[in-house]
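User: Second chain of the day. Same drill as before.
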Amino acid sequence: MNQANKKELMMGNEAIARGLIENGCRIATAYPGTPASEILASVAAYQKRLGVDMHTQWAVNEKVALEIAYAGSMAGLRSAVSMKQVGLNVASDPLMSAAYMGCAGGFVIVSADDPGPHSSQTEQDSRMMAMMAKIPVLDPDSPRQAKALVSAAFDLSETFSTPVMLRPTTRVCHSRQDVMPGDLPATTAEPDFKKDPSRWAATPKFRYQLHLEVEEKLARIAEYAATAPVLRNPQASGRQALVASGVAAAYAAEALSDLGLWDRLPFFQVQQPFPLHTDFSRQLLADFDDILVLEETTGIIEMQLADRQRVKGKLNHIVPRVGELLPETVMALIADFAGETVDLPNLPQVPGRRPTLCAGCPHRASFFAIKKAAPRGIYTSDIGCYTLGLNLKAVDTVLCMGAAISQAAGFYHAYRHAERRPDIVATIGDSTFFHAGVPALIDAVNQNVRLVLVILDNRTTAMTGSQPTPATGKGAGGETLVKVDMEALVKGCGVEFLEVRDPYDLKDFIATVKKAVQFSRDQGPAVVIARHPCIIDLARQGQAAEPIPITVTEDCDGCGYCHQHFECPALIPVDEGKRTVVDPLVCNGCGVCLQDICPKGAIQRG
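Assistant: Same format as last time:
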Protein backbone atom coordinates (compact mmCIF):
# COMPACT_ATOMS: atom_id res chain seq x y z
CA MET A 1 0.00 0.00 0.00
CA ASN A 2 1.48 3.32 -1.05
CA GLN A 3 1.18 6.36 1.18
CA ALA A 4 0.97 9.97 0.07
CA ASN A 5 4.40 11.59 -0.07
CA LYS A 6 3.59 14.06 2.68
CA LYS A 7 5.22 14.60 6.05
CA GLU A 8 3.16 14.24 9.22
CA LEU A 9 3.75 15.84 12.60
CA MET A 10 4.30 12.84 14.84
CA MET A 11 4.98 12.34 18.50
CA GLY A 12 8.04 10.17 19.04
CA ASN A 13 5.90 7.26 20.21
CA GLU A 14 3.69 7.60 17.14
CA ALA A 15 6.80 7.55 14.93
CA ILE A 16 7.98 4.34 16.62
CA ALA A 17 4.54 2.82 16.08
CA ARG A 18 4.60 3.86 12.43
CA GLY A 19 8.04 2.26 12.09
CA LEU A 20 6.71 -1.01 13.51
CA ILE A 21 3.78 -1.02 11.08
CA GLU A 22 5.94 -0.18 8.05
CA ASN A 23 8.48 -2.88 8.89
CA GLY A 24 5.99 -5.72 8.95
CA CYS A 25 5.55 -6.18 12.69
CA ARG A 26 2.88 -8.85 13.16
CA ILE A 27 2.64 -9.04 16.96
CA ALA A 28 2.89 -5.96 19.18
CA THR A 29 2.34 -6.12 22.93
CA ALA A 30 2.84 -3.77 25.87
CA TYR A 31 1.93 -2.83 29.39
CA PRO A 32 1.17 0.89 29.76
CA GLY A 33 3.69 3.14 31.48
CA THR A 34 4.83 6.69 30.83
CA PRO A 35 6.73 7.58 28.65
CA ALA A 36 5.98 4.48 26.51
CA SER A 37 2.17 4.25 26.71
CA GLU A 38 1.34 5.85 23.36
CA ILE A 39 3.41 3.34 21.35
CA LEU A 40 0.95 0.45 21.45
CA ALA A 41 -2.05 2.80 21.39
CA SER A 42 -0.67 4.28 18.15
CA VAL A 43 0.05 0.83 16.70
CA ALA A 44 -3.57 -0.15 17.38
CA ALA A 45 -4.80 3.09 15.78
CA TYR A 46 -2.66 2.53 12.65
CA GLN A 47 -3.75 -1.11 12.52
CA LYS A 48 -7.40 -0.09 12.47
CA ARG A 49 -6.96 2.86 10.10
CA LEU A 50 -4.77 1.07 7.58
CA GLY A 51 -6.36 -2.39 7.83
CA VAL A 52 -3.13 -4.10 8.93
CA ASP A 53 -3.29 -7.82 9.71
CA MET A 54 -1.53 -8.09 13.06
CA HIS A 55 -2.14 -8.74 16.76
CA THR A 56 -1.96 -5.86 19.26
CA GLN A 57 -2.45 -6.40 22.97
CA TRP A 58 -2.25 -4.71 26.33
CA ALA A 59 -0.88 -7.57 28.43
CA VAL A 60 -1.45 -7.99 32.15
CA ASN A 61 2.19 -7.05 32.85
CA GLU A 62 5.51 -6.54 31.07
CA LYS A 63 6.74 -10.10 31.63
CA VAL A 64 3.65 -11.55 29.97
CA ALA A 65 3.85 -8.95 27.18
CA LEU A 66 7.46 -9.89 26.37
CA GLU A 67 6.75 -13.62 26.44
CA ILE A 68 3.80 -13.29 24.03
CA ALA A 69 5.76 -11.17 21.55
CA TYR A 70 8.83 -13.38 21.83
CA ALA A 71 6.80 -16.48 20.94
CA GLY A 72 5.72 -14.65 17.79
CA SER A 73 9.38 -14.14 16.95
CA MET A 74 10.09 -17.83 17.60
CA ALA A 75 7.38 -18.58 15.01
CA GLY A 76 9.29 -16.48 12.47
CA LEU A 77 7.18 -13.29 12.66
CA ARG A 78 8.50 -9.81 13.26
CA SER A 79 7.36 -8.94 16.78
CA ALA A 80 7.80 -6.10 19.27
CA VAL A 81 7.09 -5.34 22.90
CA SER A 82 7.11 -1.89 24.51
CA MET A 83 7.30 -0.72 28.12
CA LYS A 84 8.91 1.88 30.36
CA GLN A 85 12.28 1.35 31.96
CA VAL A 86 11.05 0.04 35.32
CA GLY A 87 8.72 -2.28 33.43
CA LEU A 88 11.82 -3.88 31.95
CA ASN A 89 12.69 -5.02 35.46
CA VAL A 90 9.44 -7.01 35.50
CA ALA A 91 10.31 -8.52 32.11
CA SER A 92 13.96 -9.19 32.97
CA ASP A 93 13.55 -12.95 33.49
CA PRO A 94 12.37 -13.79 29.95
CA LEU A 95 14.64 -11.07 28.53
CA MET A 96 17.81 -12.71 29.84
CA SER A 97 16.76 -16.12 28.57
CA ALA A 98 15.61 -14.84 25.17
CA ALA A 99 19.05 -13.27 24.67
CA TYR A 100 20.62 -16.74 24.90
CA MET A 101 18.06 -18.48 22.69
CA GLY A 102 17.98 -15.77 20.05
CA CYS A 103 15.08 -15.33 17.66
CA ALA A 104 13.78 -16.37 14.25
CA GLY A 105 11.68 -13.38 13.19
CA GLY A 106 12.97 -9.96 14.15
CA PHE A 107 12.31 -9.16 17.81
CA VAL A 108 12.45 -5.56 19.07
CA ILE A 109 12.14 -4.55 22.71
CA VAL A 110 11.26 -0.87 23.12
CA SER A 111 12.23 0.27 26.61
CA ALA A 112 11.51 3.97 27.14
CA ASP A 113 13.75 5.60 29.72
CA ASP A 114 12.80 8.55 31.91
CA PRO A 115 15.85 10.67 32.82
CA GLY A 116 14.81 13.22 35.39
CA PRO A 117 12.77 11.29 36.36
CA HIS A 118 9.45 12.80 35.31
CA SER A 119 7.04 9.98 36.11
CA SER A 120 9.02 7.03 37.42
CA GLN A 121 10.45 5.50 40.57
CA THR A 122 13.98 5.61 39.15
CA GLU A 123 15.91 7.11 36.24
CA GLN A 124 17.65 3.82 35.55
CA ASP A 125 19.34 3.29 32.19
CA SER A 126 17.88 0.43 30.14
CA ARG A 127 21.17 0.18 28.26
CA MET A 128 22.62 -1.34 31.44
CA MET A 129 20.00 -4.07 31.21
CA ALA A 130 20.92 -4.61 27.55
CA MET A 131 24.56 -5.00 28.57
CA MET A 132 23.60 -7.54 31.23
CA ALA A 133 21.40 -9.46 28.79
CA LYS A 134 24.12 -9.13 26.10
CA ILE A 135 21.86 -7.76 23.39
CA PRO A 136 22.49 -4.71 21.19
CA VAL A 137 20.74 -1.43 21.95
CA LEU A 138 19.96 1.51 19.66
CA ASP A 139 19.65 5.06 20.99
CA PRO A 140 17.53 7.52 18.90
CA ASP A 141 17.96 11.29 19.16
CA SER A 142 14.56 12.36 17.76
CA PRO A 143 11.17 11.03 16.61
CA ARG A 144 12.41 10.87 13.03
CA GLN A 145 15.46 8.83 13.96
CA ALA A 146 13.40 6.63 16.30
CA LYS A 147 11.26 5.57 13.32
CA ALA A 148 14.34 4.93 11.20
CA LEU A 149 15.99 2.87 13.93
CA VAL A 150 12.97 0.55 14.14
CA SER A 151 13.91 -0.63 10.66
CA ALA A 152 17.57 -0.91 11.67
CA ALA A 153 16.58 -2.86 14.78
CA PHE A 154 14.58 -5.45 12.85
CA ASP A 155 17.41 -5.86 10.31
CA LEU A 156 19.99 -6.18 13.09
CA SER A 157 17.80 -8.70 14.93
CA GLU A 158 17.34 -10.93 11.91
CA THR A 159 20.93 -10.61 10.73
CA PHE A 160 22.30 -11.88 14.04
CA SER A 161 19.28 -13.82 15.38
CA THR A 162 19.15 -11.70 18.53
CA PRO A 163 16.63 -9.54 20.36
CA VAL A 164 17.41 -5.85 19.88
CA MET A 165 16.53 -3.05 22.26
CA LEU A 166 15.34 0.35 21.04
CA ARG A 167 15.76 2.82 23.86
CA PRO A 168 14.04 6.20 23.42
CA THR A 169 13.87 8.63 26.35
CA THR A 170 11.05 10.91 27.50
CA ARG A 171 12.25 13.83 25.34
CA VAL A 172 12.17 11.61 22.24
CA CYS A 173 8.92 9.82 23.13
CA HIS A 174 6.93 12.97 23.80
CA SER A 175 8.47 15.52 21.44
CA ARG A 176 7.00 16.06 17.97
CA GLN A 177 8.69 16.30 14.60
CA ASP A 178 7.78 16.20 10.92
CA VAL A 179 8.17 12.56 9.89
CA MET A 180 7.73 11.07 6.45
CA PRO A 181 5.43 8.03 6.49
CA GLY A 182 6.61 5.19 4.30
CA ASP A 183 4.90 2.38 2.43
CA LEU A 184 3.44 -0.64 4.13
CA PRO A 185 5.01 -4.00 3.26
CA ALA A 186 3.39 -5.71 0.28
CA THR A 187 3.77 -9.15 1.85
CA THR A 188 4.41 -10.43 5.35
CA ALA A 189 5.92 -13.65 6.62
CA GLU A 190 3.74 -16.59 7.58
CA PRO A 191 4.24 -18.30 10.96
CA ASP A 192 6.56 -21.30 10.79
CA PHE A 193 7.79 -22.52 14.17
CA LYS A 194 10.65 -24.93 13.66
CA LYS A 195 10.99 -27.20 16.66
CA ASP A 196 14.49 -27.27 18.12
CA PRO A 197 14.53 -28.36 21.80
CA SER A 198 18.28 -27.78 22.14
CA ARG A 199 17.57 -24.10 21.48
CA TRP A 200 13.97 -23.25 22.41
CA ALA A 201 13.88 -25.54 25.45
CA ALA A 202 17.59 -25.54 26.24
CA THR A 203 18.72 -27.18 29.46
CA PRO A 204 21.79 -25.83 31.36
CA LYS A 205 24.20 -27.95 29.30
CA PHE A 206 22.92 -26.38 26.07
CA ARG A 207 22.72 -22.92 27.67
CA TYR A 208 26.50 -22.94 28.01
CA GLN A 209 26.78 -23.40 24.25
CA LEU A 210 24.17 -20.69 23.65
CA HIS A 211 26.18 -18.32 25.85
CA LEU A 212 29.23 -18.94 23.70
CA GLU A 213 27.13 -18.07 20.65
CA VAL A 214 25.93 -14.85 22.30
CA GLU A 215 29.51 -13.71 22.88
CA GLU A 216 30.38 -14.50 19.28
CA LYS A 217 27.33 -12.54 18.07
CA LEU A 218 28.32 -9.50 20.13
CA ALA A 219 31.78 -9.50 18.59
CA ARG A 220 30.24 -9.51 15.11
CA ILE A 221 27.64 -6.89 15.99
CA ALA A 222 30.50 -4.64 17.16
CA GLU A 223 31.74 -4.76 13.54
CA TYR A 224 28.31 -4.27 11.88
CA ALA A 225 28.70 -1.28 9.57
CA ALA A 226 24.98 -0.40 9.42
CA THR A 227 24.91 0.76 13.06
CA ALA A 228 28.44 2.21 13.33
CA PRO A 229 28.94 5.70 14.86
CA VAL A 230 28.64 8.58 12.40
CA LEU A 231 31.00 11.55 12.14
CA ARG A 232 28.49 14.37 11.76
CA ASN A 233 30.99 17.05 10.72
CA PRO A 234 33.80 15.40 8.69
CA GLN A 235 35.31 18.80 7.86
CA ALA A 236 36.25 19.38 11.51
CA SER A 237 39.75 18.54 12.71
CA GLY A 238 41.83 18.69 15.86
CA ARG A 239 42.90 16.53 18.78
CA GLN A 240 39.65 16.96 20.69
CA ALA A 241 36.46 15.01 19.93
CA LEU A 242 32.87 14.99 21.08
CA VAL A 243 30.93 11.72 21.33
CA ALA A 244 27.19 11.72 22.09
CA SER A 245 24.14 9.49 21.87
CA GLY A 246 20.39 9.80 22.27
CA VAL A 247 18.76 13.17 22.74
CA ALA A 248 22.09 14.53 24.05
CA ALA A 249 23.39 14.15 20.48
CA ALA A 250 20.58 16.37 19.18
CA TYR A 251 21.39 18.99 21.81
CA ALA A 252 25.12 18.69 21.04
CA ALA A 253 24.60 19.37 17.33
CA GLU A 254 22.71 22.58 18.14
CA ALA A 255 25.26 23.65 20.74
CA LEU A 256 28.21 23.16 18.35
CA SER A 257 26.47 25.33 15.77
CA ASP A 258 25.52 28.04 18.28
CA LEU A 259 29.05 28.13 19.73
CA GLY A 260 30.70 28.32 16.31
CA LEU A 261 32.49 25.00 16.91
CA TRP A 262 30.91 22.93 14.14
CA ASP A 263 34.02 23.17 11.97
CA ARG A 264 36.48 22.85 14.86
CA LEU A 265 35.31 19.99 17.06
CA PRO A 266 34.79 16.54 15.47
CA PHE A 267 31.41 15.21 16.59
CA PHE A 268 30.58 11.48 16.55
CA GLN A 269 26.99 10.33 17.08
CA VAL A 270 26.70 6.83 18.50
CA GLN A 271 23.48 5.11 17.48
CA GLN A 272 24.44 1.74 18.99
CA PRO A 273 25.86 2.38 22.47
CA PHE A 274 26.19 -1.35 23.13
CA PRO A 275 28.15 -3.09 21.89
CA LEU A 276 30.27 -0.10 20.96
CA HIS A 277 31.95 -0.66 17.61
CA THR A 278 35.46 -2.04 18.05
CA ASP A 279 37.07 -0.16 15.18
CA PHE A 280 35.47 3.10 16.31
CA SER A 281 36.82 2.72 19.84
CA ARG A 282 40.27 1.88 18.60
CA GLN A 283 40.39 4.74 16.09
CA LEU A 284 38.91 7.27 18.51
CA LEU A 285 41.59 6.59 21.11
CA ALA A 286 44.29 6.62 18.45
CA ASP A 287 43.27 9.93 16.86
CA PHE A 288 42.28 12.11 19.81
CA ASP A 289 43.91 13.26 23.03
CA ASP A 290 40.77 14.66 24.67
CA ILE A 291 37.29 13.12 24.37
CA LEU A 292 34.02 14.37 25.86
CA VAL A 293 31.18 11.80 26.09
CA LEU A 294 27.57 12.98 26.50
CA GLU A 295 24.89 10.38 27.20
CA GLU A 296 21.90 9.76 29.49
CA THR A 297 21.94 8.55 32.20
CA THR A 298 24.85 6.14 32.81
CA GLY A 299 28.29 6.19 31.19
CA ILE A 300 27.73 3.14 28.96
CA ILE A 301 29.86 4.40 26.05
CA GLU A 302 32.41 5.74 28.48
CA MET A 303 32.80 2.35 30.19
CA GLN A 304 33.56 0.65 26.90
CA LEU A 305 36.17 3.26 25.91
CA ALA A 306 37.96 2.44 29.19
CA ASP A 307 40.41 5.33 29.21
CA ARG A 308 39.97 7.45 32.33
CA GLN A 309 42.72 9.89 31.39
CA ARG A 310 41.52 11.06 28.01
CA VAL A 311 37.78 10.34 28.23
CA LYS A 312 35.75 12.90 30.13
CA GLY A 313 32.22 12.08 31.19
CA LYS A 314 30.16 10.75 34.04
CA LEU A 315 32.71 8.37 35.51
CA ASN A 316 35.10 11.21 36.39
CA HIS A 317 32.20 13.50 37.40
CA ILE A 318 32.71 16.05 34.61
CA VAL A 319 29.25 15.30 33.20
CA PRO A 320 26.38 15.21 35.75
CA ARG A 321 25.52 11.68 36.82
CA VAL A 322 21.97 12.49 37.93
CA GLY A 323 19.08 13.96 35.98
CA GLU A 324 18.59 14.97 32.37
CA LEU A 325 21.26 16.55 30.19
CA LEU A 326 19.29 19.67 29.31
CA PRO A 327 20.27 21.81 26.30
CA GLU A 328 21.84 24.53 28.45
CA THR A 329 23.81 21.88 30.38
CA VAL A 330 25.10 20.36 27.15
CA MET A 331 26.11 23.79 25.82
CA ALA A 332 28.00 24.64 29.02
CA LEU A 333 29.81 21.29 28.99
CA ILE A 334 30.88 21.64 25.36
CA ALA A 335 31.98 25.26 25.81
CA ASP A 336 34.08 24.37 28.84
CA PHE A 337 35.58 21.36 27.03
CA ALA A 338 36.56 23.53 24.06
CA GLY A 339 37.93 26.35 26.22
CA GLU A 340 35.17 28.77 25.24
CA THR A 341 33.02 30.98 27.42
CA VAL A 342 29.27 31.16 27.07
CA ASP A 343 26.67 33.28 28.80
CA LEU A 344 23.63 31.19 29.56
CA PRO A 345 20.36 32.78 30.66
CA ASN A 346 19.62 32.49 34.36
CA LEU A 347 16.23 30.84 34.08
CA PRO A 348 13.90 31.67 36.97
CA GLN A 349 12.84 28.78 39.18
CA VAL A 350 9.07 28.80 39.02
CA PRO A 351 7.57 27.29 42.18
CA GLY A 352 5.62 24.18 41.36
CA ARG A 353 2.23 23.16 42.62
CA ARG A 354 2.16 19.71 44.13
CA PRO A 355 0.06 17.22 42.17
CA THR A 356 -3.22 16.14 43.68
CA LEU A 357 -6.04 13.76 42.90
CA CYS A 358 -8.59 15.19 40.47
CA ALA A 359 -11.70 16.85 41.81
CA GLY A 360 -14.27 14.09 42.14
CA CYS A 361 -11.69 11.29 42.12
CA PRO A 362 -13.19 8.30 43.95
CA HIS A 363 -9.78 7.50 45.46
CA ARG A 364 -10.01 10.64 47.62
CA ALA A 365 -13.13 9.30 49.33
CA SER A 366 -11.46 5.89 49.77
CA PHE A 367 -8.41 7.39 51.48
CA PHE A 368 -10.58 9.59 53.69
CA ALA A 369 -12.52 6.50 54.77
CA ILE A 370 -9.33 4.50 55.44
CA LYS A 371 -8.04 7.19 57.78
CA LYS A 372 -11.39 7.23 59.59
CA ALA A 373 -11.46 3.43 59.91
CA ALA A 374 -7.81 2.93 60.91
CA PRO A 375 -6.58 6.32 62.18
CA ARG A 376 -3.34 4.97 63.64
CA GLY A 377 -2.66 2.40 60.95
CA ILE A 378 0.25 1.78 58.62
CA TYR A 379 -0.77 2.51 55.05
CA THR A 380 1.16 0.70 52.31
CA SER A 381 0.45 1.65 48.71
CA ASP A 382 1.58 1.25 45.16
CA ILE A 383 2.31 2.78 41.76
CA GLY A 384 -0.57 4.70 40.19
CA CYS A 385 -2.43 7.99 40.40
CA TYR A 386 -3.55 6.84 43.87
CA THR A 387 0.04 7.32 45.04
CA LEU A 388 -1.21 10.88 45.58
CA GLY A 389 -2.89 9.57 48.70
CA LEU A 390 0.42 10.80 50.12
CA ASN A 391 -1.13 14.26 50.29
CA LEU A 392 -4.00 12.90 52.37
CA LYS A 393 -1.53 11.21 54.74
CA ALA A 394 -3.03 7.84 53.79
CA VAL A 395 0.05 6.49 51.99
CA ASP A 396 3.21 5.63 53.93
CA THR A 397 5.12 3.45 51.45
CA VAL A 398 5.46 3.27 47.67
CA LEU A 399 8.05 0.81 46.36
CA CYS A 400 7.01 -0.82 43.09
CA MET A 401 4.11 -2.51 41.32
CA GLY A 402 2.37 -4.95 43.66
CA ALA A 403 4.49 -4.13 46.70
CA ALA A 404 1.55 -2.68 48.68
CA ILE A 405 0.37 -6.17 49.63
CA SER A 406 3.83 -7.68 50.14
CA GLN A 407 4.98 -4.78 52.28
CA ALA A 408 1.78 -4.91 54.31
CA ALA A 409 2.62 -8.55 54.98
CA GLY A 410 6.16 -7.55 55.94
CA PHE A 411 4.90 -4.99 58.46
CA TYR A 412 2.52 -7.58 59.90
CA HIS A 413 5.37 -10.04 60.44
CA ALA A 414 7.53 -7.27 61.92
CA TYR A 415 4.83 -6.34 64.46
CA ARG A 416 3.38 -9.82 64.87
CA HIS A 417 4.61 -10.33 68.43
CA ALA A 418 4.66 -6.68 69.46
CA GLU A 419 2.66 -5.62 72.47
CA ARG A 420 0.53 -3.40 70.26
CA ARG A 421 0.10 -4.38 66.61
CA PRO A 422 -1.04 -1.52 64.35
CA ASP A 423 -3.81 -1.95 61.81
CA ILE A 424 -2.33 -2.36 58.34
CA VAL A 425 -4.21 -1.15 55.27
CA ALA A 426 -2.83 -1.65 51.75
CA THR A 427 -4.16 0.19 48.71
CA ILE A 428 -3.67 -1.00 45.15
CA GLY A 429 -5.25 -0.04 41.82
CA ASP A 430 -7.27 -2.45 39.73
CA SER A 431 -4.73 -2.59 36.89
CA THR A 432 -1.84 -2.95 39.35
CA PHE A 433 -3.71 -5.73 41.17
CA PHE A 434 -3.92 -7.72 37.94
CA HIS A 435 -0.31 -6.80 37.09
CA ALA A 436 1.44 -7.88 40.29
CA GLY A 437 -0.99 -8.04 43.21
CA VAL A 438 -2.44 -11.52 42.80
CA PRO A 439 0.68 -13.53 43.81
CA ALA A 440 1.19 -11.26 46.85
CA LEU A 441 -2.45 -11.73 47.91
CA ILE A 442 -2.14 -15.51 47.61
CA ASP A 443 0.96 -15.34 49.81
CA ALA A 444 -0.86 -13.17 52.37
CA VAL A 445 -3.75 -15.67 52.53
CA ASN A 446 -1.34 -18.57 52.83
CA GLN A 447 0.43 -16.88 55.76
CA ASN A 448 -2.87 -15.63 57.28
CA VAL A 449 -1.58 -12.07 57.32
CA ARG A 450 -3.80 -9.69 59.28
CA LEU A 451 -4.19 -6.90 56.74
CA VAL A 452 -6.90 -5.00 54.93
CA LEU A 453 -6.51 -4.67 51.17
CA VAL A 454 -8.50 -1.91 49.47
CA ILE A 455 -8.53 -2.42 45.70
CA LEU A 456 -9.15 0.98 44.15
CA ASP A 457 -11.18 -0.15 41.16
CA ASN A 458 -11.82 2.80 38.87
CA ARG A 459 -12.28 0.50 35.85
CA THR A 460 -9.24 1.71 33.92
CA THR A 461 -5.48 2.23 33.98
CA ALA A 462 -5.96 5.89 34.76
CA MET A 463 -2.49 7.31 35.30
CA THR A 464 -1.05 6.21 31.95
CA GLY A 465 -3.92 7.25 29.69
CA SER A 466 -7.01 5.16 30.53
CA GLN A 467 -5.93 1.89 28.95
CA PRO A 468 -8.28 -1.06 29.57
CA THR A 469 -7.77 -3.60 32.34
CA PRO A 470 -8.64 -7.31 32.15
CA ALA A 471 -11.91 -6.50 33.94
CA THR A 472 -13.13 -4.03 31.31
CA GLY A 473 -13.39 -6.60 28.51
CA LYS A 474 -11.87 -4.25 25.93
CA GLY A 475 -8.73 -4.67 23.82
CA ALA A 476 -6.09 -2.24 22.58
CA GLY A 477 -8.19 -1.36 19.54
CA GLY A 478 -11.51 -1.26 21.39
CA GLU A 479 -12.43 -4.82 20.42
CA THR A 480 -14.54 -6.89 22.81
CA LEU A 481 -12.66 -9.39 24.98
CA VAL A 482 -13.61 -11.73 27.80
CA LYS A 483 -14.00 -9.89 31.13
CA VAL A 484 -12.09 -11.15 34.14
CA ASP A 485 -14.23 -11.28 37.28
CA MET A 486 -12.24 -9.47 39.97
CA GLU A 487 -14.42 -10.72 42.82
CA ALA A 488 -14.07 -14.33 41.69
CA LEU A 489 -10.33 -13.85 41.36
CA VAL A 490 -10.04 -12.46 44.90
CA LYS A 491 -12.16 -15.30 46.25
CA GLY A 492 -10.05 -17.75 44.27
CA CYS A 493 -7.01 -16.53 46.17
CA GLY A 494 -8.66 -17.84 49.33
CA VAL A 495 -9.95 -14.56 50.78
CA GLU A 496 -12.89 -15.05 53.17
CA PHE A 497 -13.85 -11.41 53.76
CA LEU A 498 -14.73 -9.57 50.54
CA GLU A 499 -17.00 -6.54 50.20
CA VAL A 500 -17.62 -4.36 47.11
CA ARG A 501 -18.68 -0.79 47.83
CA ASP A 502 -18.92 2.61 46.13
CA PRO A 503 -16.61 5.10 47.91
CA TYR A 504 -18.94 7.94 46.84
CA ASP A 505 -21.32 6.59 49.51
CA LEU A 506 -18.88 7.70 52.15
CA LYS A 507 -20.80 6.73 55.29
CA ASP A 508 -21.36 3.19 54.06
CA PHE A 509 -17.79 2.91 52.81
CA ILE A 510 -16.29 4.00 56.15
CA ALA A 511 -18.47 1.43 57.93
CA THR A 512 -17.34 -1.28 55.51
CA VAL A 513 -13.63 -0.51 55.98
CA LYS A 514 -14.11 -0.51 59.77
CA LYS A 515 -15.74 -3.94 59.47
CA ALA A 516 -12.80 -5.15 57.38
CA VAL A 517 -10.31 -3.77 59.90
CA GLN A 518 -12.06 -5.63 62.73
CA PHE A 519 -12.05 -8.86 60.70
CA SER A 520 -8.33 -8.48 59.97
CA ARG A 521 -7.56 -8.01 63.65
CA ASP A 522 -9.28 -11.23 64.68
CA GLN A 523 -9.18 -13.59 61.71
CA GLY A 524 -7.05 -12.80 58.65
CA PRO A 525 -6.81 -10.83 55.41
CA ALA A 526 -9.84 -8.78 54.41
CA VAL A 527 -10.46 -7.22 50.99
CA VAL A 528 -12.65 -4.25 50.12
CA ILE A 529 -13.13 -3.36 46.47
CA ALA A 530 -13.73 0.39 46.14
CA ARG A 531 -15.58 0.50 42.83
CA HIS A 532 -16.36 3.76 41.10
CA PRO A 533 -15.32 4.71 37.56
CA CYS A 534 -12.60 7.29 36.95
CA ILE A 535 -14.36 10.63 36.50
CA ILE A 536 -12.00 11.64 33.68
CA ASP A 537 -12.79 8.41 31.85
CA LEU A 538 -16.51 8.94 32.34
CA ALA A 539 -16.27 12.49 30.99
CA ARG A 540 -14.40 11.28 27.88
CA GLN A 541 -17.16 8.77 27.24
CA GLY A 542 -19.89 11.38 27.78
CA GLN A 543 -21.24 9.45 30.78
CA ALA A 544 -20.54 11.94 33.57
CA ALA A 545 -23.32 12.23 36.13
CA GLU A 546 -25.35 15.40 36.56
CA PRO A 547 -23.26 17.66 38.83
CA ILE A 548 -24.51 18.52 42.30
CA PRO A 549 -24.22 22.26 43.03
CA ILE A 550 -21.95 22.89 46.05
CA THR A 551 -21.51 26.01 48.14
CA VAL A 552 -19.70 26.98 51.34
CA THR A 553 -21.83 28.87 53.84
CA GLU A 554 -20.84 31.61 56.27
CA ASP A 555 -20.40 28.93 58.95
CA CYS A 556 -16.92 28.31 57.52
CA ASP A 557 -14.32 29.64 59.95
CA GLY A 558 -11.21 28.70 57.94
CA CYS A 559 -10.23 25.80 60.21
CA GLY A 560 -8.56 24.09 57.23
CA TYR A 561 -9.89 20.60 58.00
CA CYS A 562 -11.22 20.12 54.46
CA HIS A 563 -7.84 21.04 52.95
CA GLN A 564 -5.72 18.94 55.31
CA HIS A 565 -7.86 15.81 55.36
CA PHE A 566 -9.79 15.87 52.07
CA GLU A 567 -7.68 18.09 49.79
CA CYS A 568 -10.14 18.54 46.97
CA PRO A 569 -8.66 21.06 44.49
CA ALA A 570 -12.14 22.59 44.05
CA LEU A 571 -12.13 23.77 47.68
CA ILE A 572 -10.02 26.94 47.69
CA PRO A 573 -8.83 28.87 50.78
CA VAL A 574 -9.30 32.63 50.39
CA ASP A 575 -8.86 35.75 52.54
CA GLU A 576 -5.51 34.45 53.81
CA GLY A 577 -7.08 31.14 54.80
CA LYS A 578 -9.92 32.65 56.83
CA ARG A 579 -12.56 30.92 54.74
CA THR A 580 -13.05 28.45 51.90
CA VAL A 581 -14.92 28.80 48.62
CA VAL A 582 -15.80 26.40 45.80
CA ASP A 583 -14.02 26.91 42.47
CA PRO A 584 -16.80 26.29 39.92
CA LEU A 585 -14.29 25.74 37.11
CA VAL A 586 -12.72 22.81 38.97
CA CYS A 587 -15.63 21.32 40.91
CA ASN A 588 -17.36 18.48 39.05
CA GLY A 589 -20.22 18.24 41.54
CA CYS A 590 -19.54 14.74 42.81
CA GLY A 591 -21.16 15.61 46.13
CA VAL A 592 -18.78 13.62 48.32
CA CYS A 593 -17.80 16.73 50.27
CA LEU A 594 -21.42 17.06 51.45
CA GLN A 595 -21.00 13.92 53.57
CA ASP A 596 -19.64 15.33 56.84
CA ILE A 597 -16.31 16.44 55.37
CA CYS A 598 -16.67 19.82 57.08
CA PRO A 599 -16.83 19.54 60.91
CA LYS A 600 -18.84 22.80 60.97
CA GLY A 601 -21.31 21.63 58.32
CA ALA A 602 -20.44 24.62 56.15
CA ILE A 603 -20.26 22.69 52.86
CA GLN A 604 -23.82 22.51 51.58
CA ARG A 605 -25.81 21.72 48.49
CA GLY A 606 -26.42 25.11 46.93
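The chain has four domains: 8-224, 228-338, 362-540, 550-605.

User: Great, on to the next one.
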